[in-house]
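Field: sequence (string)
Field: structure_tokens (string)

Example rows 1 and 2, in order.
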Amino acid sequence: MENIVPPSARQILERTLDYVRLRANSNGECFGGEIIDGMREAGAFLGVDRIEVLLTRTVLVRAMESLGENYPAEVLQDYEHRIPLSEALKYLRELIDWTTRLKQSGGALPTSENGPLLHAANNSFPLKATGRA
């Protein structure tokens, strides 16, 4: 999994976090599609290849699955239904923390506060059961 995490992932995610915060409405909600818009804008600003943005998106989808989102790819394409800003920020912050730990560990698989964010055996994010329907 660490093979697909581009070197610019943390920078892309941090700029995306700022973008999503600015785009939230007064009720503290944003469209999932605005997360991807923020990633594209961050990639353009940083001058990174489009493939790095797409790889970062792939890792984000896996992190969202790990954190209990049932259909993360659909959420990231949705411009009709808003999600709580706190949820969007949770996904982005967890992945920022994870990429930071990955970089600090020199490529060894880091864990999250809630256990391993990535299964070492198959280099995939584990699915966690949540109480949401």
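Row 2 begins here:
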Amino acid sequence: MFTIFRRINMKTAYLKIKRFKQRACKREHVLLNKRIVFFIIFFLPVLSLSANSFTDNFYWSFSGSLLYFPANNGVDSNPAPILPSVGFSAAWQFWGPPKFHFRIEMTEDMYFSNYEYNVKLGYPMACSLENRSAFVMGFLTGLQLTGVIPLGQSDIAVRVFLGPAFDFRIITKAVGLNHPADYTGEIETDVKLQTNAIKEFFWNSGRWFMPVAGAGMDFPLNDNYMLGFDLRVWFPVYRLWTIDNTSNIDGWRFGAGFRITPRKKS
């Protein structure tokens, strides 16, 4: 008799637990459906608005520049190179009252040049084609804060900018140096040793870090594009902690160029 009563109680408890789980599951489904409806009603329009806002405040451009790398190495000096450069920029405007805008801007400028390693001076120098040991392709990458000052209602604007920049260099042996005389085992004349020395110099002691500052101005080119002009300078701040035998002007970079930017539709 006690066994039968015990089984009845266990069955009753089981049914109660089962009904409780079913009710809890229904409540969870109802709550989930409410959350889905809430997301559709409130968050999707916000996400759509955010996407439109980002597009409205996103700017990009293609650019072309002339980069000047000054050098003063005395009797060992080669002409300081003036290098053509192509690049692009992308910016997001995060603050924009009518009379002044702030943007975060990323810029990229690509250049290339020939280099040799001057053993007597102890550092690389840009050089003429016949004296080359290494081919250097540089990527001047900047991440800067840009202030934009509109002038009137014609979309003419002045830009000023400042921020960190990095000269990422790909350094390889110059093309066409395959003669046995190019591999003497002496660093003065060995192409491979010179290329390795150039790599070590440029990538050590933060010599790739050089903040940038500059200014520019944009003008309407037509209904679809803006034409801008830029002046920039890169500061070799690594010279504050490195000991080089270079002259005071070495390591500085100066640039003048133009940019084409799609014009925002009114």
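free_text_note (row 2): The two ends are 89 Å apart (CA to CA).
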